[in-house]
Every structure is written in structure tokens, then in C-alpha cells.
Amino acid sequence: MDIRGFEVVSQYEDKDIALPRRKTTESAGYDIECAEAVTINPGEMKLVATGLKAFMNYDEYLAIHIRSSMAIKRHLMLVNSTGIIDSDYYNNEENEGHILIALINMGQEAVSLEKGERVAQGIFSKYLITSDDDATGIRTGGIGSTGNN
């Protein structure tokens, strides 16, 4: 296995999912597409399937950001501002590490996204821990499974 990258989750293996790519040599983010068409009504929040999972080193995470054109032109925002995909989310028991993008429509009109439309970008980053860190938990589930709140 490579150090970091993207794979298609088994549920979407036959759905012609494009692996994220950077568009220029100096782009930080990998463009992430919708795995299927979806419509988001004004004020509505939807989890948008990507058909993807990401693998990385234990001291890395994948930050998910909205593409600026989605925010500015389409009035879509990430519900949690920035999505954080932990390295242990990959291949979890609940959803195989499927990356879902939580979008909310802040506009006045419904927004329709087509399959293959670029909606977000993922940026791989390293993180640091404190010298007295004592985390021992093991992830067993998917979204929201690292704590009760």
C-alpha cells in the first residue's frame, strides 16, 4: 500500500467513480466529486456520497473543504466548516471509510449537483500530539464514532 491516497469503496466499485486529482502542480487540494446526483433545497442539509475512502499515515488526516465556486456561486457550505477524516476512519466496520460530504444550502433556490461534479477538495495534513497524550481508544464505527458528543 502507498503512504496516502484514495480508493473507491466497494459499494461504488462499478459506478465509474473518479479518484481525486490535483489540477495544477501548486494546488494543495485534491478535487472530490459527487458519486451520484443530488438536489439540496434551501436550508436543507444533505450528506453527499463521494464513493471514496482515503488512506494515510497514523499521524495524518484529510481535511475536507468546500470548493470556493460551490460556496460563492451556489451558496453551499460544509455543515461543519471543515471535515476531518482521521487515518483510522479508513476501512472502519460501519461504512468502510466512505467519505460523505455534509452540505447545507444557504441560498434561496434548490441546488442540483450532478454525478461527477466537483464539490469539495481534500488536503492531506500532519498533526501533532501533546507530550502527555494518553489516547488508547480504537475506532469501530463511522461518522461520529470517536466520542458520544
Automatic annotation (TrEMBL):
Hydrolase found in the keyword field: yes
Q: Which residues form the dUTPase-like domain?
A: 17-147
SUPFAM superfamilies tied to this protein: dUTPase-like
Q: What is any one GO biological process for this UniProt entry? A: dUMP biosynthetic process
Q: Which reaction does it catalyse?
A: dUTP + H2O = dUMP + diphosphate + H(+)
GTP-binding is among the record's keywords: no
Q: Name one GO molecular function term.
A: magnesium ion binding
Q: Name one Pfam family in it.
A: dUTPase
Q: Which domain of life is it from?
A: Bacteria
Keywords from the named record: Hydrolase, Nucleotide metabolism
EC number(s) reported in the record: 3.6.1.23
Q: Which PANTHER family match?
A: DEOXYURIDINE 5'-TRIPHOSPHATE NUCLEOTIDOHYDROLASE
Please state what the protein is called: dUTP diphosphatase
